[in-house]
Amino acid sequence: MGEDAIGQEQRKVSWLYGLLDAARERTEGSARAQAGGGGGFQQRVDRDTAENERYRRLAQFAAVEHGLCFGRIDGRDGDTLYVGRMGLRDEEGEPVLIDWRAPAARPFYTATSFDPGPLTRRRHIHTRGRRVVDLDDEVFDLAGMRPADRAGLVGEAALLATLRKGRTGRMSDVVATIQAEQDEVVRAAFQGVLVVQGGPGTGKTVAALHRAAYLLYTHRDALSRRGVLIIGPNPTFLRYIERVLPGLGETDVGLATLGELFPGVHATAVDPPETAVVKGSPEMADLLTAALARRRPVPDEDLTIEADGMPVTLSAGAARRAHEHARALRAPHNLQRRIYVHDVLAALAEDQLERLEKATDEPLLKLLEEGGLSAELREILEDPSSLLRDEHDAEYAKEQLWQDPAVRALIDGLWPELTPQEFLADLYADREFLEVAGFGALHRAPGAAWTVGDVPLLDEAAELLGVDDREGRARERQGEALREEEVRYALGVLQVTGIEGITAADLAERQREERGPVTAAERLADRDWAYGHIIVDEAQELSAMAWRAVMRRVPTRSVTIVGDLAQTGSPAGARSWGEMLAPFVRERWRELRLLVNYRTPAGIMRLAEDVLAEVDPEAEAPASVREEGDPPIAVPLDSPAELPALIAAERARIGDGRVAVITSAAWHPAVTAALSGVPTGITPESLDEPVVILTAGESKGLEFDAVVIADPVGILTESASGGHDLYVAVTRATRRLAIAHTGPLPDLLRRLEG
Ligand SMILES: Nc1ncnc2c1ncn2[C@@H]1O[C@H](COP(=O)(O)OP(=O)(O)OP(=O)(O)O)[C@@H](O)[C@H]1O
After folding, report:
1. Which positions does UniProt annotate for ATP binding (predicted)?
2. pTM confidence score
């Protein structure tokens, strides 16, 4: 690569950075100009909108600083385009840097030697800070190319250089080297359900993240208000990927685990496999419905309680009528309860008044019979309309009854007001009912912490109950007040400007839409929020009940699902995408497959293929893009106490990189004892540590320079998923894999004995 070419590109790149600086200064300048306070409602709204936009722009400028321009494409028509992290225009308004997500940038990702499209050349521009340090060219001038040069992947040199880099513990974007098959995932149509099925290391996660950025760029109007949510398997995984989107200039995408989907609950604990299967099964929905019906018994006898020192009776007939009346209202349990309470109080009040009348009337009637009453009094008593009862009395009586604890207890026994948490905890405590229903595994004492598997059930319960969301209502009331203010303001605008053809309400609505999005955190705290798009990673782990909770949040069914059925670890997880998706979209979903592994060197992947062939003969392992790398090794040990030496040796071989010790439950205590001081488990902090001890399940989705699998036999036999966990473990390394074992190696690792 000539110095001239680098020098030339340096001039271009420096000029582009100059334009970026100018754009940043303009944005900062306009912030200062607007900074004055005061103004009416509309000025405030305008200022907020402009403020949001400025914030977004400044965040984007900061995000694109590193690697602003990373590519160039030369077309057959003689045109040259520069591709970068954002679009820039020159002083004349001409586009001079194309956003990687724009349609014009697409050939940068899709051109191959076999099918270069309109390109004659693609150039990767490598920069350090603002300095151009290297260029990588692929020339698509087929006629002049040797066949050997034609083979291979898009941007192979640039790609391999990226893949060889040590891992930092955080995923970074791959915007300069997205491969053609991944590009298809990134730019697939936004509507409907897209499943991205691919083996380990095929870039499912990274492609899904770029897709989020692409969708926001391409459909910003539709998506920035409704928002995009990414659901990942655990907080550590989210930490691992959290920098990718900001690095692409997108700061407002929500990230959540399944355990955080239900507002107010942060579940991280997982259930034992048998319980997970039960909690995840679709039959749970029926169980919850049945359990709730039991909370609303219809008595077959009259019920008499003592209220305010007097007996009062709810007849079986009145209880049944109240029940039927409430059930006729198509509403959740807690809302139906309001009708029920009203009817039961009315019945009790009536009974109470009857009793009172009887009590006062009886002595009088006796006198009447005996003829000891004046003619006037006799007339009053014989006229039914003159009785004491009237509407006012009835209302008063109902109020009094409602204040009475005995009446409350009666009603709560027949139709209690329930929160999802109370309802589920009561259900888990009801051993007899659970056993009779065939769900005995769910029984547990009250007060235990919620698990990830409980979250979809809480969500389901909230649907059935209709959460009495007082805070939400307060928010709504605030919203209503704001809305009234907005409409009043809009009316003023219409009067002053004389604009016609739009109502004040419509104008207010339009302005509200322009006011900009709520934050990702606010959306997550609102159980009823309907997202514009949801991306689910490691989606094979989601149970049927979890899918119900996810789909509830995206009524338009605009969803990207990425996963690998061959890596399913949860016994409640997916065995087939079609089966999981059928209840929501029937057959209306598309699948794209990723077939190339960018993580694991070929030597390690051959071992992974042996494992997969054994545990899931139908599945196909992806081909590894890198032939190079150290072959995997088996290290026989006398005991786990010898691990420190092995870890030290691995660390010495990989330099700055990171090591994961992936171990079985059986070995876990001995491994942690032998490697004292080494963090265990998936805490977000452990990502930054040079060595970490994990179970196979915990290592899912992550990658490390070197992996030591301690006790493969244990991982294999303990696995609730029939060995898929071992497949996950052997595919985590980017450079080196060592298998430490005490007894003989399992058959499926026999390749290592040679
Ligand atoms: N086009 C690419 N350019 C550079 N690096 C890439 C590319 N595609 C994937 N990678 C790298 O390959 C590794 C694996 O990617 P990723 O974690 O997205 O795979 P995955 O399919 O989600 O894997 P798993 O199923 O094992 O979790 C990451 O380090 C990622 O940055």
Report:
1. 198-205
2. 0.81
